[in-house]
Specification:
It is a single chain. By secondary structure, the chain is mainly α. It has a two-stranded antiparallel sheet with strand order 1-2. The termini are far apart. The model has no long low-confidence stretch (mean pLDDT 88).
């Protein structure tokens, strides 16, 4: 702008309220994702622990045949890893096509509250979808770590069982 009376501002300076709303949204996403990851971890822990409880005799027979405790420990960890990777693969197989379809078909906001927010911030009334690297790489790796972490208590329990006690189990 050649006229010195005009001033050009970047959008964060022009709309600091929108920047604050975006930061609040990020914090809310982190809190929600953290709660979801804890729930997933406890779900995996429960599943693997119940599997270990139901297979006490099997682990006892394996130990009586000479399988070392660390091999039983590794067996439970590998099963947990397989379960976690299968869940991630199914989630990605269902989620990626859905997000790709939604990225081509954004959701139009038509409510009065959305219209007021659109007028306030001068935004388009759309919810847009996109895939990010965090969703495709970071979260699956984090979930694999949570799956292995959740398998540690059941794996310790399975590896510390004595064959004599396991064979007496009904």
């Amino acid at each position: 702008f050649p006229d010195p009376s005009h001033e050009v501002l970047p959008w964060p300076e022009l709309m600091p309220d929108l920047v604050q709303f975006m930061l609040l949204d990020d914090v809310g996403n982190w809190i929600g994702n953290s709660i979801l990851i804890v729930v997933v971890g406890f779900g995996l822990l429960n599943t693997i622990l119940m599997s270990v409880f139901e297979r006490v005799r099997e682990f006892g027979v394996l130990r009586a045949l000479g399988l070392r405790p660390r091999a039983v420990f590794a067996l439970v960890l590998i099963e947990s890893l397989q379960l976690t990777v299968l869940g991630i693969a199914l989630g990605l197989a269902l989620g990626i096509p859905l997000v790709l379809w939604l990225s081509g078909h954004p959701i139009h906001l038509t409510s009065d509250g959305a219209a007021a927010a659109v007028e306030l911030f001068d935004l388009e009334p759309l919810i847009l979808f996109a895939l990010a690297r965090d969703q495709l790489v970071t979260l699956p790796l984090l979930l694999i770590g949570i799956g292995l972490l959740a398998a540690l208590p059941p794996a310790f329990r399975a590896s510390r069982g004595r064959p004599v006690d396991a064979l007496r189990e009904t």
